Amino acid sequence: MPDRPTRFKRTTRVMGTVASIHVDDGVDPERIEAAIAETFAELERIEAVFTTFRPTSVISRINRGELALVDAPQEVIEVLDACTWLEHASNGAFRARRPEPPHLLDPAGFVKGWAAERAARQLEEAGLRSWYLSVGGDLMARGRQADGTPWSVGVVDPFERDRVLATFDLIDSAAATSGTAERGAHLWDGRGGAPHELVQMTVIGPSLTWADAFATAAFAIGRSGVDWVSGFAGYGAIAVDREGSLSTSLSTGSAA
Amino acid sequence: MTSSPRPASLARKALPALVLTGTSIGLLTQLDRAGHASPNGGLAVPGTTATPSTRAPSTTSPSGAASGLGRSAANPPTTTPPASAVPATPTSCTNNPVSGPAIMTRFGPVQVTAQLNDDGTLCDITTATGPSDDRRSMMINTRALPVLRLRALQAGGTGFQAVTGATLTSQGYRASLQAILDA
After folding, report:
1. pLDDT per residue as tens digits for the range B122-140
2. How far apart are alpha carbons A191 and A219 in whole angstroms?
3. Core vs surface per residue B5-15: b (16+ CB within 10 A) or e
4. Mean pLDDT of all residues in chain B?
5. Residue A164's closest CA among B31, B97, B180?
6. Would you say residue B162 has pLDDT above 60?
7. Among A8, A139, A172, B54, fewest CB within 10 Å belongs to which?
8. Which of B49, B53, B167 has the CB atom closest to A79's CB atom?
9. 3-state secondary structure string across A192-248
10. How close does chain A come to B91, measured CA to CA in Å?
11. Contacts of residue A128 in chain B, CB cutoff 8 Å?
12. CA–CA distance, B108 with B101 (Å, rounded to integer)
């Protein structure tokens, strides 16, 4: 393979999971390494601001009443603003507060995708054109692989996680999945009541922030979440319910 | 290409499912075209989480995409069209079938063969590897076909470079598909 550029693959533990970056680019390896390091550092910085698992985070300080919302950093207000909008847009299926009293602030269902998209600016600003970033299965891709084929993504089978149910290509777009696998703690139906109809909800669309946010909300909504997602221009969904049925709003239309 | 013992009946079951679940016709095709037309993001990926809300003192301003989101919120998506709106199924397919790679499902490999009309719409679809007798697997294979078909129509594409699934802990990651892809 003399002409094929080296694929950079780097991982780091962050946000309670693992982030992965793959880069297919012929540019200076040092520039790639630096951009990857900056991306990982930005994820860690954001985690420190938003995590509810550390008493020093901004969210923890707000929850203890030590910090007024209006005095919070601009990025925290931005995230909570977006959460408020999503709560309305999902008729309350998404909530950025925990369901049990005292209803502490916990925007984890929103932050991961937003953080990944924000951190990925480091890759874009470094001029990298062909890469993907995954933070625990929430991923965004840019460009194509070195051989010209798109980055292809498999949807994990929630019943047998070493298999995929389907694959699709991601070209300059994003995909995120919510499910009941290991880290279900941040998933709850803001409207309370009925148990989840779904075991997994994957959303594909132009922005990782909103793909992740819609996946979180649509998972809580249940089977009809597939149609709810497709009401947003450019976004589609693949859902797996408790019985193992798969439903999707993705294309069955004409192939180019 | 060998067919399963009952491709015709499968196709009859699959086609209505394809139409009924295909509420967002052409999404991936749009994504693909956007990718071709504008490698830097033809779909206007917002750089911020701008939202249409005016309640909070956010300095972000609504982008085109966010405006679209706002419209969707104001006008909730309508429900799936009733079955009576489904166009009649074409009775004959004349174009050459296109086969995709076998895709592993939890019930075994499924390979999709599709025939298209001249305008590119789906004429017929068959699974070269039939599902088991399990009723649940029948549902999966039938309803998964819209996605599987996308794969079938991608010439030469094999494998995948990333996976999306419910978030794993860093311990769970070690035994995950993504860990294999990262190796």
Report:
1. 555 555 444 444 434 434 4
2. 13
3. eebeebbebbb
4. 45
5. B180
6. yes
7. B54
8. B49
9. CCCCCCEEEEEEEECCHHHHHHHHHHHHHHCCCHHHHHHCCCCCEEEEEECCCCEEE
10. 18
11. none
12. 13
Distance CA B180, CA B164 (A): 14
Is residue B74 scored above 80 in pLDDT? Answer: no
Q: Do A77 and B57 touch (CB under 8 A)?
A: yes
Task: Report how far apart, in Å, the C-alpha atoms of B9 and of each of A118, A236, B29, B100, B146 are.
Answer: 49, 29, 28, 20, 17
From the list B31, B32, B167, the residue facing A17 with the nearest CB is: B167
| Confidence grade of residue A177 (pLDDT, cut at 50, 70, 90) | very high
Q: Which CA distances in Å does A222 have to A102, A129, A171, B5, B174?
A: 26, 36, 27, 35, 30
**Interface predicted TM-score of the whole assembly (ipTM), two decimals:** 0.86
Nearest CA in chain A to B164: A137
Q: Best residue in A147, A199, A245, A251 to probe B by mutation, most B CBs within 10 Å?
A: A251
Shortest Cα–Cα distance, A234 to chain B (Å): 7
pTM of the model: 0.65
In chain B, the N- to C-terminal Cα span, in Å, equals: 35
Task: Tell me how many residue pairs between chain A and chain B have CB atoms under 8 A apart.
Answer: 336
How big is the CA angle at A7 (ends A6 and A12), to the nearest 5 degrees? Answer: 135
Calculate the alpha carbon distances from A234 to A211, B26, B42, B162 in Å. 10, 10, 11, 21
Percentage of chain A surpassing pLDDT 90?
69
